[in-house]
Amino acid sequence: MASLTNTRIESVDLLKGLMMVIMALDHVRDYFHYSAFFFDPTDPIQSNLPLFFTRWITHFCAPTFSFLAGLSAFMAGKRKTRNELSGFLLKRGLWLVFIELTIVGFAWFFDVQFRTFGLLVIWSLGISMIVLAVLIYLPRTYILIFSLLLICCHNLFDNVHFSGNVLWAVIHEQTFYALSDHTQLLIGYPLVPWIGVMALGYCFGALYDKSFDSAKRQKIFNSIGGIAIAIFILLRLTNLYGDPKEFKHYDTLSQDLISFFNPSKYPPSLLYVLMTLGAAFLFLANTEKLKGKIVDFFSTFGRVPFFYYILHLYLIHILAMIFAQLSGFGWQKLILSTWIGFEPNMKGYGYSLWVVYAIWIGIILMLYPFCEKFDEYKQANKEKWWLSYL
Questions:
Q1: pTM score
Q2: Which residues have a Cβ under 8 Å from the Cβ of 128 and sit 6 or more positions away?
Q3: Alpha-carbon distance 275 to 156, whole Å?
Q4: Among the residues of the chain, which ranges form H helices?
Q5: Is 347 exposed, middle or buried (0-12, 13-18, 19+ CB in 10 A)?
Q6: What SS3 string covers 104-133?
Q7: According to the model, what pLDDT value does residue 4 have?
Q8: Which strands form 116-119's sheet, in the order they lie side by side?
Q9: Burial profile 55-65: b = 16 or more Cβ within 10 angstroms, e = fewer
């Protein structure tokens, strides 16, 4: 019987790292592509397939990473008491919320006045960990039911709106909320169903117990992944349930494809979760035995995701300022008062898609040696508690 013998799971680190690298592509597009300031890359009318799939491939990052964070929490719990794990999740969750509002927030805008506070992916991970710190006291069956209810049923509330209600927005509706005449709150990642996605990952952690047969684990992931993709296709074609943005037929096949593969992300609909996590499950099922330099390359990023995330945001924004200055646009316009895609002063700046890809590859190669060194430091200093927060 094949089973896990290492404290780290290579396929999980590989998937984390791959998601980290792909995520950077979307952020580079935000700061460098000329169309980012004119229209949504997922708009079937204005977009095109290369641009759409540049955005689409990054859809897999947030749900996959949230799921894997829950799975990693379960694995961490194998080395801690339940109270210790709960305390760790609570402290790490609060830490992530603080980082989102300070270090990460500044990286997005470079605005010392902090005219926009963003509740984005790091915030959603933080709050999800805080909730998970409580949920772990329940039997795993109850946690699984809770997570599936959030993921599968929240679309029943798609037509429920409370204008100006920040609490409802935090729960289920992406919006901007004015805090004062000069300060706004961007609620980019409403918490439902992100909390459920992380809780689901925690439930799946048991599949990676050392005593669990790897062939059985592969079969389970393949089965659930395949079923998830099949349900996504069925519901998307029929528009029965699961997404407020229905699949529509347009004049061209490319527009139809964009409409079909573009379920709602904010908040992530049932179809969005089925599409993205279904693919993640298939990946996990079929990569445990992969070895080699390419696997090592991506796994390095997967072992230091927080460190990588902070570095990549600052590097992208600094490079964007340099490119803006060299092109005559002016670096000052990259000091942003709102989300870059909504910044009216950015129109007229930007480069073609191939430049975006070139910059993305360059950024990944620049970050790799720093991540490799930090990974080595973490591996050599596991006794240092503060490293678990980076």
A1: 0.95
A2: 66, 69, 70, 93, 191, 194, 195, 197, 198, 199
A3: 19
A4: 10-32, 49-56, 61-77, 82-99, 105-109, 121-135, 140-153, 166-172, 194-204, 214-238, 253-260, 270-285, 293-303, 305-326, 353-380
A5: exposed
A6: HHHHHHCCCCCCEEEECHHHHHHHHHHHHH
A7: 45
A8: 116-119, 184-187, 175-178
A9: bbebbbbbbbb
Alpha-carbon gap, residue 142 to 312, rounded angstroms = 38
One-letter amino acid for residue 353 of the chain:
L
Query: Hey, what's the torsion of the CAs at 200, 270, 61, 358, to 10 degrees?
Result: 170
The pairing of beta strand 175-178 with beta strand 184-187: antiparallel
Task: Name residue 118's amino acid.
Answer: G
Q: Residues 220-240, buried b or exposed e (16+ Cβ, 10 A)?
A: bbeebbeebbebbeebbeeee
Q: What is the C-alpha radius of gyration for the chain, rounded to an integer number of angstroms?
A: 21
Cβ-based neighbour number of residue 359 at 10 Å: 22
Length of the chain in terms of residues written: 390
Which pLDDT tens digit goes with each residue over 51-70? Answer: 999 999 999 999 999 999 99
Residue 165 tokens read as 């209600």
- As to burial, measured by CB atoms within 10 angstroms (0-12 exposed, 13-18 middle, 19+ buried), residue 81 is exposed
Q: What is the β-pairing status of strands 175-178 and 116-119?
A: unpaired
- Which residue carries 């006045």 as its tokens? 113
Instruction: Judge whether 266 and 190 are in contact, CB under 8 Å.
Output: yes
The one-letter amino acid code at 201 reads: G
Which residue do the tokens 């990054």 mark?
58
**Digit-coded pLDDT (tens) for 7-45:** 568 999 999 999 999 999 999 999 999 998 899 999 999
Q: What is the pLDDT of residues 219-273, one digit of tens each?
A: 999 999 999 999 999 999 999 999 999 999 999 999 999 999 999 999 999 999 9
